[in-house]
Amino acid sequence: TEAELERRIWDAKQALGDRVLILGHFYQRDEVVKFADFVGDSFQLARAATTQPQAEAIIFCGVHFMAETADILSKPQQAVILPNLAAGCSMADMANIDQVEDCWADLEALYGTEPDEQGRVPVIPVTYMNSSAAIKDFCGKRGGIVCTSSNAHTVLEWAFERGQRVVFFPDQHLGRNTAKAMGIPLEQMPMWNPNRELGGNTEQQLNEAKVILWNGFCSVHKRFSVAQIEQARAEHPGVRVVVHPECPMDVVDAADESGSTDYITKAIAAAPDGTTFAIGTEINLVQRLATQYPQHTIFCLDPVVCPCSTMYRIHPGYLAWTLERLLAGEVVNRISVDESVSEGSLLALERMLAAKP
Ligand code: 13P
Ligand code: SF4
């Protein structure tokens, strides 16, 4: 039963004490979040993975790319555990390293490799945290950097100080929304299509490009629409519409604000009592915020429940199992990033952590 499972998790967690650190992403279900030592967005969780060097194991309740990042940033002797190995991210899977290398070869053929008079290289590769370690490594080894939804603007500024243009993997929406907010016109953001010569773009489009986008997206955030925002405004005059920047551009433009899961959480916490919020992000977070802040009216923009199905694969049963195995001296479901890609990934992640806001 649920109560038994809960007891088992508490018992194992208590017995392990400081030997284990449990991290939980905001999108995890409440039955998992309640056991987390730290709950946050992907940037905060990457930082949190470095804070307890004495813990033998970090159990990461989130998705695969987050656990990989925790493994890269934590101490080598610490084991990072993903309770269910099937918890991936469909967006991260949309950029594979072979396609990215092909794209890069084409960009090098087009733009060359020589810096301009200001010392800026032709292209800086930037990858969203939601990508495999192989892509982070690729970026790190070519002078590039990682970003999350909470620092994409800062990271793009960092990149434009060092490069004439950026290629951005894999989320087209975060790339486009961030570049647009920085004043880059849409005509200067061609999208790379890995199946066609020049990515389906003319040479002129690519010559004028400032940000070359990748054709990736989040299937959860893609569901939000301008029609939903219009309906929320009609039904709730004065509603504050806050969406995640993984939403399509027209949705971000129609919303009042956009920001990472941490931004959304803080916006709600800081609002005067009685505020009505329509939120465009994953349902587990929206429902938790609605419960935590009963003084506000908080609902999800999408009336049909939209969970992230892969985040949801972290069932409390898996958490109980990994904790109990650990207590018995066995590490199961360990995520170990191969040495061949961890060096470049670390470089790209450290550049992100050092980039000034
Ligand atoms: P955050 O960086 O806002 O936590 O988002 C991660 C994510 O996967 C959103 O879909
Ligand atoms: Fe990936 Fe979207 Fe799920 Fe985030 S919400 S983990 S981007 S599929």
Automatic annotation (TrEMBL):
Pathway assigned in UniProt: Cofactor biosynthesis; NAD(+) biosynthesis; quinolinate from iminoaspartate: step 1/1
One MF term in the entry's GO annotations: quinolinate synthetase A activity
GO biological process terms on file: 'de novo' NAD+ biosynthetic process from L-aspartate
Cofactor(s) annotated in UniProt: [4Fe-4S] cluster
Sequence positions that bind [4Fe-4S] cluster: C89, C218, C308
Note on how the cofactor is bound: Binds 1 [4Fe-4S] cluster per subunit.
Domain of life, source organism: Bacteria
Cellular compartments annotated: Cytoplasm
Main localization, broad class: cytoplasm
GO terms under cellular component: cytosol
EC number(s) recorded for this UniProt protein: 2.5.1.72
Binding site for iminosuccinate: H25, S42, Y128, M129, N130, S149, H244, P245, E246, T261
Keyword line: 4Fe-4S, Cytoplasm, Iron, Iron-sulfur, Metal-binding, Pyridine nucleotide biosynthesis, Transferase
Catalytic activity of the protein: iminosuccinate + dihydroxyacetone phosphate = quinolinate + phosphate + 2 H2O + H(+)
Family statement: Belongs to the quinolinate synthase family. Type 3 subfamily.
Function: Catalyzes the condensation of iminoaspartate with dihydroxyacetone phosphate to form quinolinate.
Name of protein: Quinolinate synthase
Classification of source organism: Bacteria, Bacillati, Actinomycetota, Actinomycetes, Micrococcales
The encoding gene: nadA
Whole-protein residues included: 85 to 441 of 441
